[in-house]
User: Fold these one by one.
Assistant:
Number 1:
Amino acid sequence: MNAVAEIGAQPWVGAGLRPEQLAWYDRPGWQSDPRFATATAEQRAGLLALHEQGWFKTRLNLLQHSADAVDAAWREAAAQGLSVQIDSDSLGRSLDWAELLELEAQRVPLSWRLVNAQQQLLALAELVAHPQLQAWMACLVGAEPQLLKCSYFYRGSQARPHADMPYAPIPAPGALLTLWLALEDADAGNGALTVFPGSHRRLRGFDAGGGSLLLADTDPDSAQARAYLDHVEAELARAAIAPVIQTLRAGQLVVLHAATVHGGVPITDWQRTRRSLVLHVGRQTV
Ligand SMILES: O=C(O)CCC(=O)C(=O)O
């Protein structure tokens, strides 16, 4: 039988994570932490929601043309043949520029994203450096937040419900955070993000072997990754947690706890893009 881990509460700690591997806002007495005392009223509200509900929503002052600027930058990178990682969720593999441009030209329904392209694309680097994003990272992750992964989604991922924590091989997996920024309006038609409130506390953890909560094999096609996704589906049904589809306007930011289950709804209108910036941020030191 799988080890049972109540995420975010003592049993989770007992199931594999030491308190220092948790986010500071999940540790006993966290509201006495100086970081809570010095947080702004908006940050406090976010921290309380993250602790209780596993997510919150806020808004950034975002330039309207940000997504278009990134698109212009990747088209330029494609023309120059710059090496950038392009992952396609719908094909389940990586693409090169030639294949991507060909499929886009043929209007093939294709979900894809650029991974860690902020070093090649200045427009993307500027988005990551957005002062309000950086302020949230500093508040939520603490000193030296580390950007583990930066994804620029062109269309929705249609990802099955999952939490990000089991995929993050960092010493403090509980300190992982997902920052999901809408670069254009997102809704059910273009494959919105969906969130399962309270799942960070109410779902039992997946035993990836020896009581570990981290997947040894994160390849989406691996038997273990599939077993994890099946486990999440069964747990959501057991706990009767309904998804909340995030209908977002450009500039809205959703912050997700490491253990909060989320995914992407099926795309019904493939003519639309659903451009978003998704940052996985964590702490390397415990
Ligand atoms: O944007 C989406 O559709 C889902 C993103 C997601 O699940 C992730 O990046 O972990």
Number 2:
Amino acid sequence: MDVREAIRERRSLLLFDEQPVSQALLDELIQLSVWAPNHRLTEPWRFHVLDRAALRELFQAVLAEMVEKGVLPPDHDESEHMNQLPPFGVVISQAPPSIADNPLVEMEDYAACCCVAQNFMLAAHAEGIGTMWLTGPMAMASAAAERLDLEEGSKIVGLIAVGYPREGMRKRSGLRKEPSVTWLTAASAADPAASP
Ligand SMILES: Cc1cc2nc3c(=O)[nH]c(=O)nc-3n(C[C@H](O)[C@H](O)[C@H](O)COP(=O)(O)O)c2cc1C
């Protein structure tokens, strides 16, 4: 698939098919995704692959924490979502910064992890596999960090739901606004109205 097509056509997937995704392919997509820009080559990304049962346990632990903290009422019902879990979830976490107390390094590492996530989703799309990047309360929950056994100082960048698209599934809006673009050129510095 042409890279332009992959970028334009990838859309977050809400519903997944039962068709299993091969673990070998999943591993290949992960190996490919790390060819991302990464200042200082810190390679801050960590992958945690969860099958459906492990995903269910993770979400249940997060829900329990939300109820305990009073964010959700005790009778909160997530059974609909729990019955529609994808075959796999790939959590990308950001390792603790290699240089402590340096917000720039932390920002660069987060950015590199986001590039990896997008690489992963585009590569998956090119294989006919759908994805959806999820954060929500899970990204901040200590129950999730515990379940994933994250190192102190690590952060969850996102959980990428992975699976083949369910027949007739709804896709998210593919619309994008015209981006705001400012060109700064020698000519525009002399005459701001002269931007191409
Ligand atoms: C950092 C990040 C976090 C996201 N978290 C969620 C989420 O928690 N729940 C959700 O429904 N979608 C989430 N999304 C997916 C966006 O909603 C989705 O990308 C957006 O609607 C655009 O749709 P598209 O991916 O099909 O282009 C997240 C996306 C990003 C980049």
